[in-house]
Design a protein that fits this description.
Order of helices and strands: HHHHHHH
Number of helices: 7
Number of domains: 2
Largest sheet: none
Oligomer: single chain
Number of strands: 0
Helix content: 55-70%
Distance between the termini: 122 Å
């Protein structure tokens, strides 16, 4: 045994060791005075704890504990058993989520409305203008992506789509004669 085995010394002082282990600790205690002092300190502590009695609680102890428990239960029992702070936090979180959802829905509708008008109106209008100018369908080229982006930037032009859709200036231009 070595001097670091404090658990064995504690068990020896309380007579909780097997006979073989108790014999080993006893031989070590004969050689080591420092471990002997540790075992003696454990025994003195046991004697002091045996003589000690816990103080009895005052006669009003139970009444005070019950009143404090009732007060804490009342403070915690806000709305449906939740505390006031939790109810407030849940309410604020609900309002924030509703507002965020409303804003996201409104932005999506605005994007859908602007995207659908721009994507449907200008390519069709430009295609109709090209066809009315005398170009065949084989000659009509789709707009490059850069021009489509420029059209999306100029959405203020598309505010009155009905007027622009029926505006056929190119149909009134004279056609070139073949010589």
């Amino acid at each position: 045994m070595n001097c670091d085995a404090k658990e064995k010394l504690f068990s020896y002082a309380h007579q909780m060791l097997e006979p073989a282990e108790a014999e080993e600790v006893c031989l070590h205690l004969a050689k080591c005075a420092q471990c002997g002092q540790v075992v003696e300190a454990y025994r003195k502590l046991d004697l002091a704890l045996d003589d000690w009695t816990a103080p009895e609680p005052s006669p009003w102890f139970d009444a005070r504990v019950r009143s404090r428990l009732a007060a804490s239960e009342k403070a915690k029992s806000g709305f449906l058993g939740f505390g006031r702070l939790r109810v407030l936090a849940v309410s604020v979180l609900s309002v924030v989520l509703l507002v965020a959802g409303f804003i996201a829905l409104r932005q999506r509708r605005a994007q859908d409305a602007s995207g659908s008008v721009a994507s449907r109106s200008l390519p069709q209008a430009s295609q109709a203008a090209r066809q009315s100018a005398g170009a065949t369908e084989a000659q009509v080229q789709p707009l490059p992506a850069e021009e489509e982006l420029k059209m999306d930037e100029n959405l203020s032009v598309l505010e009155d789509y009905d007027m622009l859709a029926n505006f056929e200036v190119l149909s009134e231009l004279p056609k070139a004669k073949d010589n």
